[in-house]
Amino acid sequence: MKAIWKDKILAESDETIIIEGNHYFPPGSIKGESFKDSDTHTACPWKGEASYYHIHVNGEINNDAAWFYPEPKEAAKEIRNYVAFWKGVEVID
What we know:
The protein has about 90 residues and is mainly β. The chain has one domain (about 1-90): Domain of unknown function (DUF427) (Metal Binding Protein, Guanine Nucleotide Exchange Factor, Chain A, Beta Complex). Helices cover about 0% and strands about 55% of the residues. The protein has no helices and nine strands. A four-stranded antiparallel beta sheet has the order 5-6-7-8, with no helix packed on it. A three-stranded antiparallel beta sheet has the order 2-1-9, with no helix packed on it. Strand 5 and strand 6 form a beta hairpin. The model has no long low-confidence stretch (mean pLDDT about 95).
């Protein structure tokens, strides 16, 4: 699987975890230079508190386009620090 925005590969892995229709990419598969920390946080009743990244590609910014769970609840422990995408980021096989 690949996560792509503005023709740039943001993440690539054959070992994503699919939860609620979203592919979560292992932390080591993320191309870190495109990711900037965000102050945004949201809560999921069963996964816990999500943190976000802004995506930066060729001078363009996609705010809060990636999220992850640094300290997930027990039910979601398998996705600790795995990253999922939305807001126009394509996830393709």
